[in-house]
Amino acid sequence: MQVKLNVIVAAAAALLAGSVYAEDLVVKIGHVGPTSGGIAHLGKDNENGARMAIDELNAKGVKIGGKTAKFELLAEDDAGDPKQGTAAAQKLVDSKVNGVIGHLNSGTTIPASKVYSDAGIPQISPSATNPKYTRQGFKTAFRVVADDVHLGGTLGKYAVKELKGKTIAVIDDRTAYGQGVADEFEKGVKGAGGKIAKREFTNDKATDFTAILTSIKATKPDVVFYGGMDAVAGPMIRQMKQLGITAKFMGGDGICSGELPKLAAGAMADGQVVCAEAGGVEGSQKVGMEKFKVDFKKKYGADVQIYAPYVYDATMVMVDAMVKAGSAEPAKYLPVLAKTSGYKGVTGTIAFDEKGDIKNGALTLYTYKGEAREQIAVIH
Question: Signal sequence: where (predicted)?
Fold first, then answer.
């Protein structure tokens, strides 16, 4: 009799535990970025932004459809490689994630977006700026930063109007991001009445730029623009100094990191570099951003590189749509996500247009003095 009683008690306990578990809703959020390779510092920065959001959401006890949501972060490394990016995307789809934040690079984000679209899984990129990403007609694709048309074009005009660039050279790394932002920069230069004296290209794994820089030096450039990431830009700046090229060095968000001065190994002159980050806050919104940076450093022992706050906001916006829809099922919360308007994030107010692009995306122009990045202006 005692044995039977023990079995009954055990069964009841298991049933109770099961019912308690049934009250919880497990929500899987995928994140993909390059956490290995030359720009792993940027990928880790993004991933930590996602982890920060997930930890805060779990601490709050967020309810979706009356159930307490338990958020899980499924983090994948795409190494900045398109093939690895699509493989990571398929892995997340197979894991039945409820949504994806990522990827970091346009070159991985664009091919991965088809995988998510085919599976009907919402994707918010916190940093991919190539216009093509949201122009493929995928209803699942969103981004929380301005695209290259705005970013590259603004830098092109700035090179001519503010830096008074007469002889401007352009180099890109032939990735979707690098070539895309360089193309838009060139359009911006020409639109402002300037001319491109030389256009060269390299690749995102290159370390020796002697040949292309020697070719550019012959034009006596005032400005050299590089479309690519900081891991290549740093050594390029160093080699420019070795060759005696004193031109201003410009680039998009890919070079606009806290690591750039270290990657340039002390070769940057004060004010030599001008770059833009696809985002930015001003006025009273700065308080929230500064608090985020302090909290981030306290949690991870590292400064924000570029896009951790945008990853954080992207995660929060996705979950906000789930809460409003009363469901974490992609098909049910996707229409709500698409209608996001007026969400107050640490990066500013977030609203999506019909393509999934952020409305009224801001840009922040920066330069460097010593190893410190200094804000020049926020442009809308």
Answer: 1-22
Report pLDDT digits (tens) over 110-165.
999 999 999 999 999 999 999 999 999 999 999 999 999 999 999 999 999 999 99
Last residue of a domain, one of 218, 244, 277: 277
34 neighbors 42 (Cβ within 8 angstroms)? yes
CATH of the domain at 155: 3.40.50.2300
Helix (H) or strand (E) run with residue 65 in it = none
Tell me the residue type at 165: G
Residue 372 lies in a domain: no
CA-wise closest residue to 49 among 75, 86, 84, 80: 75
End of a domain among 231, 260, 277? 277
Helices (H), the chain: 2-23, 40-60, 82-94, 106-119, 148-161, 176-191, 210-217, 230-242, 260-263, 286-300, 308-325, 330-338
- Residues contacting 283, CB < 8 A, separation 6+: none
**Distance from C-alpha of 369 to C-alpha of 18, rounded to nearest angstrom:** 59
Calpha distance 213→200 (Å, rounded): 9
pLDDT tens, 41-81?
999 999 999 999 999 999 999 999 999 999 999 999 999 99
Number of domains in the chain: 2
Asked if the structure places residue 28 within a domain, the reply is yes
